Amino acid sequence: MLGCSIFFMALPVANKLTGSLLIIASGLIAIRTLRWKLWLCPERPDLLVLAVGYIWLAMGALATGLALLQGKLPAPALHLITIGALGTCRPA
Questions:
Q1: Which one of 2, 3, 40, 73 is most buried, by most CB atoms within 10 A?
Q2: For the chain, domain boundaries
């Protein structure tokens, strides 16, 4: 889903399709994160931090998809991915 949405992001005429793909991808990312059941291993902060970054990715995909469907610029929503998801897993 994310790969297809990246391809269609280059085509402004496909904003509705791209937005829909991003919203679907957001749901799939959230489901995948829940299936990991990371609440069962609180002694593994390394895994919990990765999960937080993954949740940021889901929120960013959702916000970007909604922005594209509403005809708004996706740049502010992309900050959830660039700052949230990528910034969560910075090296020590």
A1: 2
A2: 2-88
